Amino acid sequence: MNQTREGTDLFSRPVTALPGVAGRRAALLRRLGITTWFDLLTWFPRDFEDWSMLTPLTELIDGEDQTFVARVVRKPAVTRRGRLSIIRTILRDDAQAVAAVWFNQTWLVDRLKVDPWYIFRGRITRSGATFSVQNPAFEPWDPQKESSYGIRPIYPLTEGLSQGVLRRLIQTVIPRLIGQIPEPLPDRIRRRHKLCAVDFAYSRIHHPSSWEEAEICRRRLAFEELFLLLAGLQLLRSQSRNQDLGCVLTLSPEQTRKFNQIFTGLPFSLTQAQERTWKEVLKDLASPQPMNRLIQGDVGSGKTVIAALSMLWCALAGGQAALMAPTAILARQHFDTLSDLLSASGEPIALLTGSTPAKERRQLLSDLADGQIRLLVGTHALIEESVSFHNLLLAVTDEQHRFGVRQRIKLGSGEAAVQPHVLVMSATPIPRTLALILYSDLDISLIDQLPPGRQPIRTYTAVSGDRPRIEGIMRRQVQAGRQVYVVCPMIEEQAATDLKSAVSTYNRLAQQVFPDFRIGLLHGSLKADVKERVMQSFMQGEVQILVSTTVIEVGVDNPNANLMLIENAERFGLAQLHQLRGRIGRGTHQSLCILLSDSQDEKARERLRILCRSEDGFEIAERDLELRGPGEFFGTRQHGLPPLKLANLYRDRQLLADVQVSLAELAKRDPLLESPENQPIRRALDTRYGQLFKRIGI
What we know:
Elements: H1 5-12, H2 23-31, H3 37-41, E1 47-50, E2 65-72, E3 77-81, E4 84-92, E5 97-103, H4 108-111, E6 117-127, E7 130-140, E8 151-154, H5 163-177, H6 187-192, H7 198-204, H8 211-242, H9 253-264, H10 272-285, E9 292-297, H11 303-316, E10 320-324, H12 328-341, E11 349-352, H13 358-370, E12 375-378, E13 392-398, H14 402-408, E14 421-426, H15 432-438, E15 443-447, E16 458-462, H16 467-479, E17 483-487, H17 502-513, E18 519-522, H18 528-539, E19 545-548, E20 561-566, H19 574-581, E21 592-596, H20 602-613, H21 617-628, H22 653-669, H23 679-695
Parallel strand pairs: 5-7, 9-14, 9-15, 10-12, 10-13, 11-12, 13-14, 16-21, 17-19, 17-20, 18-19, 20-21
Antiparallel strand pairs: 1-8, 2-4, 2-6, 3-4, 4-5, 6-7
């Protein structure tokens, strides 16, 4: 179906054009990211409730969500406890009574009438012989419309917006948009994978007649979501190979000798995995097509060394190279590492962060624009408009900013534009199958070896009762000249939690436990220059114990730190714990990681046991995925992509495989999506992911 101009206008029509949407309600929708009719249509249910299975009150089951029909036998009564309003009443059918209670919903006092019958749904609890239901949803019961009380969608909400309001708004736009939605999937792909039609999927996902129908619609829309996202990334890759002009980076014999002298002078030998990766990068740099390569490796595998060699090669070839780190702390560390590794080259290396003094910044930007600075390290400030390169030919970045880098660093204009080589370093090991999805726009190099000579990190669990023994271990390590990390899940204490905060832990250690030691405090709310000073003091050995939040999670490298205590370890995911643990074990001394947790939750305990058994980041990532599902760790947002609304990268692995097969065939037939039959894909890309793909050049 072709999308008409009227259809396009309907898709972008603001929600404020709907009756009853203005002011506060429009603001609440905007908080959810819903501003257009199409946003409403694609605000998919997070779950469903089955209102069709009615349970007599005599057959209620403790602890389960159940639907029942009853009448109100007593006018709802309101009691108040400070700001809390409690509404209570009694519900009854022909044989049994159940107590009902609602919190802060005084409006329903006038809504619930005595004697009429209602249909209710909520979580049942039992105390002795008495059943109760808390905050049940309800509506008037009409036995002649019993079939209409079927499977109902449950949508993600924000405070102040109800399921009823959101359902009504979505049901309002569905008949106006159905018939206007173009079919983005080619017929041959739909038939092969037995996918339902686009109109059926978008309408019935919001009101399925059965659980089977809900899954049919979800499967089709999840396939479409993955297909379009990966088709856009595939198109980006095809355009880069066909349109972008790269720069072949080759060295003269003299420059080659200089590079080899520095390479052979490194204080260590590359592992086989590093050598393999370096050869792959070198081949890319010698190609007229711009490099778009991901280096994926476990904690401490030596990704930065490959970045340093790549940057040096670029500088010796006459170009500029920039390394962009996600934090100022990591930028400073990369600057120090590159300065050490490349000191024999004579190439000056500059550092640009948000805390760079104004005068120094002005001079740095001037030297950068003139080409006097050929190696630059910094934060995302490197891609601000005020930063101008003379001849940038290599950009090294993290996964989250790879698209922003591509957009910003394209130099020149028109047909003469040059696209620098891009090297992406991933800080998070993830299963290779998922890497192929999340990084389908990149070639992937895997560093699957650790440098020799590193001792395994011993990892143990502990409980609060072990604290005196742990603090004794900390004292002995500091007295031996080593340094210690203490990681907390929060910055400040919060009411109604027993979580350890960085601030209270710092105060306790500094004032009561180790008043004779130098203790530092680091967390995300500190000013950038303060964080940098604290980190530098720790790196230089002035701070002996560093109390921190997860701000030290990525990249921080202090070989003298060999002990880490993680408070409330159950609050962290496996992958995050592995990243934190990777801050120690970088020197020659035996390292110890202590996971302190009093949690009795068996899943949480199993996560900690897995970490005690394994140091393999990829194995840990697989188990994390198995235990927790994709979640935030395997979400797309941290990889620079929009969040998935329906597809689940773990549950839908077969669907992912089907999408990849279809896209591989599409790439052979029409890699740039130029044929008339593939224009619906182009239009759908613009509708769904227009803002992202405009930023990255599609």
